[in-house]
Amino acid sequence: MTDKLRVFDVFYRDYQHNVSISSATPEPLDAKRLAPLAKVLLQSPDNFFGVVDADRNILQLYLDDTASGAEAAIVVELLAAEKSGFHQVDMSLADALALLNALPEVFKPNLLPGARFVG
Question: In the prediction, which pLDDT does 45 show?
């Protein structure tokens, strides 16, 4: 039995390597490669990583450079297509990678438990 290939459009910016994909023209990426790419990108301040679902909702992740503590916090934001405001939550890198490994086809606010709405 073969697994169905799952693909999401992505955009990102890697300032250290001067590489980017614009959010205006995201590119397809195999769902299995989301977490490994995010793990590399989310190590440096100012870098960001975005995933676009089937309904054009956006899950955006970046390093919280204002957080204190031993482990860096990742800010995760869910922006609904065609709506103002977004849901935002901080999580560990491990939790963010686990989230990326289990993304549904369409992102809903319950994807981010404990998220606050920023409007």
Answer: 85
pLDDT of residue 67 exceeding 70, the answer is no
Look up the pTM and report it.
0.91
**Residue 77 and residue 59 in contact, taking contact as beta carbons nearer than 8 Å:** yes
R_g of the chain computed on alpha carbons: 14
69 falls in which pLDDT band (50, 70, 90)? low
